[in-house]
Every structure is written in C-alpha cells, then in structure tokens.
Structure prediction request, 192 residues.
Amino acid sequence: MIINDNINYSLIDIEPMSIFESIDIRSVTSRPEFPSEEFEDFMELLAKWNLSDVYGSDILKFSKKICHDDVNLPTSVKQGRQLLDQIYVPHISFKKSPIMIYKEETYYLQYRPIFDAIKELLSNKEILDNCTFDFKPLYHEGQRIYYEQYNGDWWERVQNSLPSGAKVLSIILYSDATTCDHLGKTSEHSIY
Prediction:
C-alpha cells in the first residue's frame, strides 16, 4: 500500500518477466483463411485505412452492387470483424494487467510483451531484410572505425559468447504520442 498526499493506492502484484528469452521468428502464424480473395482484400482495406464500421458498410454496399454474382464478400462488416477476432496470433495479442485500485476502481495496464512486439516486427520480411544481426568490423584507410552498433567491440564479444545460430538484436525504447480516437482529441504517450 502506498500513501501519498492522504490518498491510499492499493497496488496489485505484477507477474515477474523473464530477463532473457529467445525469439524464434520461424514459427510465425500463417494468414487466416478467408472465404474468397475479395473478402480478404476488403478486410485488408478496412484494417489498412482503419475504417469505421459505418464507412466499411457503405463501401461494402457499393461493392456488392458492382461485383459479379460469383464474388464472395462478407454479409456485413461485423461478420468480417468477427472472423478477424477469431484469429489467434499469440505475438500480436495485447495483455491486460491490473496495476492499482483507487477509490474502489481497478486500473489496468494494456501492453504487449516486448518479445511479442519484436517477433511481430521481425515476421515482416521488409523489416527483416533491413536488419543486421552479425558483427561487421569496419575499416577506413586501414584504421578501425565505429559507425553502427554492430561495428563495436561489445557486439563482437556478445556474438562470440552466444550459441551457434543465435544472433544479437539491439532494442531501443522510446515514447511518443499516440492518438486514441478518430477525432484526434485524445492521445497517450505509449512506450515503444
């Protein structure tokens, strides 16, 4: 219990996390099975442009008017979202932990474990192709120079201490404002 300025905060125990964990990006969950390619394309557009159900329904109505009879589209945006909600991909799921109770109300922390976020990033081939995991000494006119983290002595020492096949991954955390609503009036400073 923390008492601050005559306010009682009841803290809830938080489950400890493992400090070291290995990440196997080869076990990425496959894409969901949609009833048709058009259904998948429609749902991808909804997600990509973060369209509300109202906009999605208008687009769906228009699409049904102009498409062929053999095209399989969702009967409603709600049906498409229900299909997406059934997809369980463990490394993109958010977790919710109670962090304190104040005035008989429980406050929660919504988060993604950092290893899950890293796995999601590295499962994107475009991102993975631009990552460097191996130590690379850099020389200019015969002199050793340091330009990136993977050119440093620390990276070399750590890489040499790892089991065969394991790689070093540098993680940089930062905080930035994230808009929480469609009107842009509410924002939070998430830690990335």
About this structure: The helical segments are 37-48, 53-66, 77-86, 114-122, 125-128, 153-161. Residues 1-20 have pLDDT under 50 and may be disordered.
